[in-house]
Design goal:
Length: about 350
């Protein structure tokens, strides 16, 4: 069946798939300066400006866009999330607008509220952050994220003592290895001038995530942040070691980011990889061993047998012409002899008589 839909209607129908593809592109690289991340930001921004997606897909796109930008544009992020989060008079003080509570999963709703709290902290709106954080445990019972956000609010309140705030966060076992907690502790220790302590936090987190048997492993994210931190503070060898590990674990992805060499435009690398390499030498043939007497002349070898002489050849004497003449004479004499035996005897008698008369 064919449906005559307008282009805008087609885009609305395909919006969930387009947002999912952009999200995969967002996760393709961890660096915020990579080409895939920039393309993801452009795609999310286009969704928001054109407003063609359905409400749930648009909410996911806006939240992912805020997560990608981070604290770069706090006011714009707060303005976008204010359209999604509303205060209510019911038992829950906050709810999502346009019935999104029923259209989004719990993890998606939790991500929206989390980004809202973080933006409030970045904008130094402590009262609003405390109010929202206080309502999250009832909205998401059993989730660790409200506990983490409450700790972040307390840390922000104690920002005048960064070392104390960092130590307080590090003592919470449930969240001390989370990427957000690690980033907060490192930032606080840097502000307090404890560079070695911040570096130790990264090393401990890398060791913990290397041994963690979880599906949602954050090792690569923490390694990249640790490498950037070490490079920023002059620890180039340690940073190079971490970058080498990252490249080995994501070699194919980093290879696509490299620019092609100008001299290799006409070369098809894929076809070269499919062709066979150099031919290997054939294995030795386990046949019979070579003759050990192969270096001796043939007459001196034990297997030598001289040729036999032809006896008929020994009877022929003289040159080739003489032999032919003798054969011709013998044939003539045989032809001159009579065939009658009586005539032969008479001739013999006559010859004898004549010989006597001569005597």
């Amino acid at each position: 069946m064919e449906e005559n839909l307008a282009d805008d209607d087609v885009e609305i129908e395909l919006a969930p798939i387009a947002v999912q593809i952009t999200y995969v592109q967002q996760l393709f690289f961890f660096s915020p300066d990579s080409r895939d991340t920039q393309e993801a930001v452009a795609s999310y921004t286009d969704f928001d400006k054109r407003n063609l997606a359905n409400e749930s897909s648009l909410a996911v796109a806006v939240n992912n866009l805020i997560a990608l930008k981070g604290p770069k544009d706090v006011s714009d992020g707060l303005r976008k999330l204010d359209k999604l989060i509303e205060k209510s008079d019911g038992p829950e003080k906050f709810q999502l607008a346009r019935g999104l509570d029923l259209k989004l999963s719990q993890k998606q709703r939790e991500a929206i509220y989390t980004n809202m709290v973080l933006l409030l902290l970045h904008s130094n709106k402590m009262d609003q952050a405390r109010e929202l954080v206080g309502a999250l445990p009832g909205m998401f019972p059993g989730s660790l994220m409200p506990v983490l956000l409450q700790a972040a609010v307390h840390v922000a309140a104690a920002a005048g003592h960064p070392q104390i705030a960092a130590d307080s966060l590090a003592k919470i076992p449930d969240i001390q290895h989370k990427p957000a907690t690690i980033a907060t502790i490192v930032s606080l220790k840097e502000r307090a001038g404890d560079t070695d302590g911040a570096d130790a936090v990264f090393d401990s987190a890398i060791k913990w995530w290397s041994n963690a048997m979880t599906e949602d492993n954050k090792l690569n994210t923490i390694m990249q942040e640790a490498a950037a931190f070490k490079l920023r503070h002059g620890r180039k060898e340690e940073a190079a070691h971490l970058y080498e590990q990252l490249v080995k674990s994501h070699g194919k992805a980093y290879e696509k980011e490299l620019k092609p060499l100008p001299g290799l435009k006409a070369i098809d690398v894929d076809s070269l990889e499919k062709t066979s390499g150099a031919k290997q030498a054939e294995k030795a043939n386990p046949g019979p061993p070579p003759d050990p007497e192969r270096w001796l002349p043939k007459r001196e070898r034990s297997s030598y047998r001289p040729k036999r002489k032809d006896k008929r050849a020994a009877q022929i004497r003289g040159s080739q012409g003489a032999v032919a003449k003798e054969a011709a004479r013998s044939s003539d004499t045989k032809s001159n002899q009579p065939a009658n035996p009586k005539g032969a005897s008479q001739n013999a008698v006559q010859s004898k008589a004549s010989s006597k008369s001569r005597k």
